[in-house]
């Protein structure tokens, strides 16, 4: 589906709502989000907007050093300041002193050693935010500064930075014949930088103590039940005495509300007996939350004389930073997809994730897959150049399809239309060349008033093919639970799937409308009193939570139809709900759904749990993932070869989506993902010289703006339904993030002839010496 088609359908839907036609509903239409008006008017409740009677303000003291031994902590001066109600350190954590979603190795507060710049040491509650910050600064910490380990390659030989050692995980993947060799060999060394999620809203939260000695946390959590369990362990409480209420999430391309913010918040509320609020500054946000893993990759590709891959050898080293977080999962994805969506009969991959004194790395959209995509696509460009083949043609000779086998030994059973995607972007018309006219100066890489000269501009065209997994990471239980209630003709969905911008609440409404034929569907706010739905990563809620909503709605549908079927002497299978009416196969019955629901209260609860997976074994083999999604992108760039500036002219995208559930929402998710990839390719790199975060703000950290966003052409959406997925749909936002940096780097290579082996691309890497 093209952008034009999406626009037409959206416009038609809007037109229908103003005329005599009923409003659009159900799957396949561009139903607008229910919270659109509140967000545009500024009335949507985010955590930073919350208030409570008797409110105190929190501030966290963070380490100025990446590595140091703590000799002493003196809180006396802070405690004596007027307005200060509490000061807490590691000595005031009543429960488990360490936490982490992947592996419990990160302290709530540093006690004897600080392991990264910005690590939490103490927290303060005071009657004014300025007082809280001044009191935190008044805590005196004596440090013995230690040399930081900042190079992940040095971590193997360095003294242990943590009681668990420096090696978090090692995966040696072995697939095929180790002695296999090709007629041609290309090698490369690649580095991927540290990308920050840079959420629109910095971390914030409100903690309110309860009369029973428990606490309620109002947060923008993306995994409320997982966060509740970690918080309860730290607070020394049973999980049922800690409640997390999810507030509005101001965007999430990674985990939101890092525990280094929320755990001090809850502890302060429990200590003072008062509500406590924390609103992080942008600097604190950069220092506190996890980032994309910086990665070092070494590759060797073997191919025959026709360009068909024979063997891939690779070494992948992920810099996890100070703590494990989700590094094990990221490494598994990197190793599993190290060869990309290509048929590779022999693969030998070594993957490591190690601790350093750099800022922590963790979950971020496309983790692991983005880094290897940039490397294996660079290798494909090198191979095409060595063979004298068109880069698209070389890729076409090697693409995988349904039924092929990954290097992990897992058979690709889901739709994998990689060749179709590549053909679509390859054959899409190229954008026109820029003119050397003054009125078109904005077309130059330097932009208006830029330093570039038209005569120095070279255009390049490049390709990227990417893949991601959707569910089931190495045996993870991906269950989700949902309840659908109908009363007085209004349906309500209760599901703890957090709306992070991926559109779940809109999808849930569409599912219920489709199944039950009701117009008004409400989605209840999320809290931990509801059954768990799991984390919001990788768009998994489209599958597992959407599937749970569908099953619950179908159970309610059966309850609704059974009395009518019994009355007319037929089975419920002979009745259908279409356009808000219940009709029978023979036309005898035709009644409005609203009339059939009158006076009834129906409800049902259901679960969705995809088929189980398994961890990778000692040779990197195993059916580790449930589903996969694929994307092809053709990038067109203009490069000023004298100053190295790059402008992305156009990104043509073809994606495997399974089924389009909401055209406008799907297009927006793809465009957002592609644009985030532009940042990873050209501008975003959180610099940490000697482990110190430099310029932790949105001035020093260069996010792409609207002026940097290229034309994004969605040239094809392949709707080949995955039979094991509810509705046959796949999540769509991660795979374009993974693919677009590789495509942009490929295009810069084509324009300059330079190797471009580092992301983000430095200007000097695009300069050509004549």
UniProtKB/TrEMBL annotation:
SUPFAM superfamilies from the entry? CO dehydrogenase molybdoprotein N-domain-like, Molybdenum cofactor-binding domain
- Matches recorded under InterPro entries: Ald_Oxase/Xan_DH_a/b (IPR000674), Ald_Oxase/Xan_DH_a/b_sf (IPR036856), Ald_Oxase/xanthine_DH-like (IPR016208), AldOxase/xan_DH_MoCoBD1 (IPR008274), AldOxase/xan_DH_MoCoBD2 (IPR046867), AldOxase/xan_DH_Mopterin-bd_sf (IPR037165)
According to UniProt, the name of this protein is Oxidoreductase
Question: Quick one: where's region Disordered?
Answer: 1-31
Identify the Gene3D superfamilies for this entry: Aldehyde oxidase/xanthine dehydrogenase, a/b hammerhead, Aldehyde oxidase/xanthine dehydrogenase, molybdopterin binding domain
Q: Which residues form the Aldehyde oxidase/xanthine dehydrogenase a/b hammerhead domain?
A: 41-147
Q: Spans of biased composition, class Low complexity? A: 1-18
Please, which domain of life does this record's source organism belong to? Bacteria
Coiled-coil annotation: which residues? none
A Pfam family: MoCoBD_1
